[in-house]
Amino acid sequence: MLSQYMEQIEALGLNLFFASIFFFIGMAIHDVLKQGKVPKFGRYIVWLVLFLGCAGFIAKGLIQMSWEGSGIG
């Protein structure tokens, strides 16, 4: 039974891995910004770029799921 769902388990594990990587990148950036005493505008730009990277990754996953569900991919 486990072998039937191996592809789904791998995809879920990969998505969780990338989510944890984004979390640790965010923690590292937070630490660098705090220790570097970066101005507020610079912090907003850094967090915006990080958010857009995460949003792009999530959008890619949603597009991929919709394409695979409709038989395109």
Could you describe the 3D structure shown?
The protein has 73 residues and is mainly alpha-helical. It is elongated. The chain has helices at 6-36, 40-70. The protein has one domain (2-70). The model has no long low-confidence stretch (mean pLDDT 87). The longest helix is centred in the first third of the chain and has 31 residues, at 6-36.
List the helices and strands and how they pair.
Layout: H1 6-36, H2 40-70
Sum up the structure in keywords.
single chain; mainly alpha; 85% helix
Q: What are the segments in which pLDDT stays under 50 over at least 5 consecutive residues?
A: none
Q: From N to C, what is the helix and strand string?
A: HH
- Percentage of residues in strands: under 5%
Whole-number radius of gyration? Answer: 17 Å
Q: What is the count of helical runs?
A: 2
**Helical content band:** over 70%
Structural class: mainly alpha
Residue-averaged pLDDT: 87
- In terms of quaternary structure, the protein is single chain
Number of extended strands: 0
Which shape, going by the Cα principal axes?
elongated
- Biggest sheet overview: none
Spatial gap, N to C terminus: 25 Å
Number of domains: 1
